[in-house]
Design a protein that fits this description.
single chain, 82 residues, 0% helix, globular
C-alpha cells in the first residue's frame, strides 16, 4: 500500500564526494534509520531544483524531498508491505 503525503521531517545526512546521502529521518515522533538509498533524482521547477531520495528502513519504502529554498525536508510517499 502506497500513501502520498506532504509531512515535514528532520533528516540526518552525510556529505560525500558523490553528493548527499540521507542516513536517518524523524517522522511521527520516531527516528527511523535508513538501511538503503535505492534511488535519487532531481526535479526542476523553473529555477528551483528539488532533490528526491527513495529510501528503505528494511521494512518500508519512503520518498524524501529536499526543498533548498526553505532548507526543508518533506516525506512525500510511504509504501508499506502487506
Amino acid at each position: 500500500m502506497t500513501e502520498t503525503l506532504d509531512d515535514p521531517i528532520e533528516v540526518g545526512v552525510i556529505f560525500t564526494e558523490r553528493g548527499v546521502r540521507p542516513t536517518w529521518f524523524s517522522w511521527q515522533g520516531r527516528r527511523r534509520p535508513i538501511a538503503q538509498v535505492t534511488y535519487a533524482w532531481k526535479e526542476r521547477d523553473g529555477n528551483l531544483v528539488r532533490r528526491y531520495f527513495t529510501v528503505s528502513d528494511g521494512t518500508s519504502v519512503y520518498e524524501l524531498c529536499f526543498d533548498p529554498v526553505g532548507l526543508r525536508w518533506r516525506l512525500t510517499k510511504v509504501t508499506v508491505e502487506g
